[in-house]
Each structure stands twice: as C-alpha cells, then as structure tokens.
Amino acid sequence: MILPVAKLGTFVLKTLSKPLASRLKSQAAHHPRFRQSIIDFAQANHKFQVNLQRRIYGHATNVEIRPLDEEKAIQAASDFVGELVVFSIGGGLLIFEVQRSARSEARKEEARKHEIETLRAEVTDLTKRLEELEKTMKGGRGISSWLPGISGDTKQTSSS
C-alpha cells in the first residue's frame, strides 16, 4: 500500500516543481540584484559554450566572443534556473526512492537471516534428538525405550 502512495507523491512533487520553476524564472528577471547575477552567469555560460563549440569544430578559440544582449541573457539564465529546480527536485526524489528501496531490501535481508538462523537452530536441535535416539537404539533396550507412553516393563500387574 505504501509503494503506490510514495510513487504518487513523487509524481505530484515533480509536477508541482514545474510551476515553481516558472515562478522562479519570472521573479528572477525582475529582482535587480538577482537579475545582474543571472546576466553575468548567462554571459559566462555563453562564452564557455562558444569556446567549447569552436574547439570541437577545430576553429580558433582566441577570438573575441560577442556577449548576448540583456534580454537573451536573462531568458537563458532563467531557463537554466528553472531546469535546475526541476532536475534538483527530480534528483532529490530519485535519491529518496533509492534510499527507501535500500531500507526495504535491508529489512527483507534481516528477515531472511533471522529465518535461516531459526532453521539452523531447529536443524541442530533435531540432530541432537536423532543422536539421542540412535544411542537409545544401540543400547539394546528396544523400541519400548523410546516410544512415549509405553513402559519398559512387560510384566504389568492389574491388581489395584
């Protein structure tokens, strides 16, 4: 019962993270201090991507790269922030699910170990009982010595 509820909860959180990311994106574009930092981040990311592409295609990397205009930088950075929120929540949920599964497996393994120990104890007990029966049988006292309810005396008197 807990598994479907947990999966449903994960799905709900992932679904709710998308509007949260959209709201963060819109707020990021209007907050002046955050706006400047995301513009700087977007410009640095743009330079990195252009240099990486130029290296991949074998072009010179010592050329000057034109910066993005402010609106494109804000859009790129706020898209990045939105995706970062969605992936962070998804990654957190994935880690939570893996840990939950690991705890469940550990409980199952502990139950199996307990069952094996119980079976081993039972086998040990049965082995001891079998050895006792074998000793009794070798003692030559016959079947009456190890069957319950039968006395070893064959001469029973009925006088009471």
Automatic annotation (TrEMBL):
Keyword check for Coiled coil: yes
A matching Pfam family: OPA3
Recorded coiled-coil stretches: none
UniProt keywords, alphabetically: Coiled coil
Record region (Disordered): 140-160
InterPro entries: OPA3-like (IPR010754)
Family designation: Belongs to the OPA3 family.
UniProt protein name: OPA3-like protein
Species in which this protein is naturally found: Riccia sorocarpa
